[in-house]
């Protein structure tokens, strides 16, 4: 059965010289490296990430936006991590993929989760800039500070699961993390979404077709690096304190989609889904599980090794099951449809809202045109609830929009899981900023976060 295993990390080596963006190289909570990949010329270049750039843009979507503007003429796509991504800070699982919205100067960003963002950092880079278009299918293999472009002709036409299986076997490591497109992205379907390993990313902006247009089938990641901490003892102590305080607020810790539905007062959706729930799963170092694995062909209560190639699907998004229930599907029908979306690399929310719950017999070419659906200020948000989820502290509804934007800013800029941030009381945001200072030596205030958030969607 497909899944991820426990990792052990040691320090990796960076084997070659870097060019400078200027200034002092980032030393803490960072590799201090930006990878620039030119698909047209089939070349890679390593740049130093300097501290002034981080002080100005903080990281994550903030630096992604800066890099998009710097390389605007070369059709850039940027994958970035926050200062807290891959650290001991609770919820430190998030990365961001950014691009220009097609045909506009608007910048858009989608969250990357599971284990992928931490692996980006551990592979030796903080940011990956992808330029131009390849003349034939390729994939990017990044490991221990080394980046290689490889022929993906044998992968073109394979689905997401087949691609990840192939890469892990070909490259000799079952712990490799992947960013993948399926046939949806290859065919440039407007419904094409990014997948992480085997499962749908929270790609409500359908950026899968962007990688398809570049003929970039996948990014494979593996690294064994560690991060330096400016004040390690204080940083670790503060991380532990934050985690203890977060746990103390719960009478019963919510887990998985069923727990999230309960917090959203949608407990009927959790009840509907429960008969096929096998287990819940959290992203890297995140204390609340935001995904749920369901079984379709086998008994979800079974603890025996499955005889199926894959008996179910990991539901990584809260919205598709809710929408499918509203449209009258039973949970197994819904899960089967979502498993198909994962294999084909299609974004389920867009399909469901177009009243597509079964794939047409004619295949992807028979899908209807996609209606434009904008995210919040260029941020992918359809699969992130827009209400607070912490217990016993109601917030007036008129305050939700401003709170939600700042919450999303903390997530996308510093690399923090959005579901964790939805359950973190706003008065604890100062603790997050203190962790940034203890870990990196960079002082950040709330006005700076708001300033960076304001600028991350401007072209």
Task: Describe the protein's architecture and organization.
The protein is an alpha+beta fold and 459 residues long. It has a domain at 245-363. The protein has 16 helices and 16 strands. The protein has helices at residues 51-57, 61-70, 116-122, 160-171, 183-186, 208-213, 232-248, 256-263, 267-273, 319-326, 331-344, 348-353, 400-414, 418-422, 429-440, 446-455; strands at 19-20, 33-38, 43-48, 77-81, 95-100, 107-112, 127-131, 138-143, 146-151, 177-180, 195-196, 199-200, 216-222, 277-281, 291-295, 312-315. A seven-stranded mixed sheet has the order 1-3-2-7-4-5-6. A six-stranded mixed sheet has the order 9-8-13-10-11-12. The chain has a three-stranded antiparallel sheet with strand order 14-15-16. The radius of gyration is 21 Å and the shape is globular. Mean pLDDT is 90; it is low at 4-21.
How many strands, which pairing sense, and closed or not: the largest β-sheet?
7 strands, mixed
Number of helices: 16
User: Which parts are unreliable, with pLDDT below 50 for 5 consecutive residues or more?
Assistant: 4-21
Number of strand elements = 16
Estimated structural class: alpha+beta
Looking at the structure, what is the overall shape? Answer: globular
Strand-residue fraction? 15-25%
Arithmetic mean pLDDT: 90
Radius of gyration: 21 Å
End-to-end separation in angstroms reads 43 Å
Helix content: 25-40%
Query: Strand sequence of the main sheet, in spatial order?
Result: 1-3-2-7-4-5-6
């Amino acid at each position: 059965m497909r899944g991820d295993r426990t990792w052990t990390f040691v320090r990796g080596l960076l084997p070659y010289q870097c060019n400078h963006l200027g200034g002092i190289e980032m030393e803490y909570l960072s590799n201090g490296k930006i990878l620039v990949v030119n698909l047209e010329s089939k070349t890679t270049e390593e740049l130093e990430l300097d501290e002034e750039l981080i002080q100005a843009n903080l990281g994550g979507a903030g630096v992604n936006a800066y890099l998009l503007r710097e390389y605007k003429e070369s059709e850039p796509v940027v994958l970035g991590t926050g200062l807290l991504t891959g650290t001991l800070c609770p919820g430190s699982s998030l990365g961001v993929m950014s691009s220009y919205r097609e045909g506009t100067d608007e910048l858009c960003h989608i969250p990357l989760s599971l284990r992928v963002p931490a692996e980006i950092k551990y592979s030796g880079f903080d940011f990956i800039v992808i330029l131009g278009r390849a003349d034939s299918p390729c994939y990017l293999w990044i490991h221990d500070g080394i980046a290689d472009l490889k022929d993906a002709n044998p992968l073109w036409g394979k689905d997401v699961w087949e691609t990840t299986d192939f890469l892990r076997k070909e490259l000799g490591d079952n712990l490799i993390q992947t960013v993948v497109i399926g046939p949806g992205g290859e065919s440039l379907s407007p419904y094409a979404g990014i997948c992480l390993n085997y499962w749908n990313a929270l790609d409500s902006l359908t950026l899968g077709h962007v990688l398809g247009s570049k003929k970039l089938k996948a990014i494979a990641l593996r690294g064994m690096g560690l991060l330096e901490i400016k004040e390690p003892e204080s940083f670790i102590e503060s991380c532990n304190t934050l985690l203890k305080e977060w746990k103390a607020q719960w009478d019963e810790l919510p887990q998985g989609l069923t727990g999230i539905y309960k917090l959203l007062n949608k407990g009927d959706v959790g009840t509907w889904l429960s008969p096929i729930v096998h287990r819940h799963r959290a992203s890297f170092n995140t204390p609340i599980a935001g995904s749920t694995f369901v079984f379709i062909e086998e008994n979800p209560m079974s603890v025996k090794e499955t005889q199926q190639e894959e008996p179910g699907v990991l539901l990584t998004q809260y919205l598709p099951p809710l929408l499918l229930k509203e449209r009258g599907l039973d949970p197994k029908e819904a899960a089967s449809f979502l498993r198909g979306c994962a294999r084909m690399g299609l974004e389920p929310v867009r399909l469901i809202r177009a009243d597509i719950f079964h794939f047409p017999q004619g295949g992807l070419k028979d899908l209807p045109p996609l209606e434009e659906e904008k995210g919040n200020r260029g941020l992918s948000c359809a699969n992130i609830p827009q209400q607070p989820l912490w217990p016993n502290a109601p917030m007036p509804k008129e305050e939700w929009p401003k709170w939600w934007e700042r919450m999303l800013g903390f997530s996308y800029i510093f690399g923090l899981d959005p579901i964790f941030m939805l359950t973190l009381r706003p008065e604890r945001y100062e603790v997050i900023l203190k962790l940034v200072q203890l870990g990196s030596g960079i002082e950040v205030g709330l006005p700076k976060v708001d300033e960076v958030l304001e600028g991350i969607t401007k072209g």
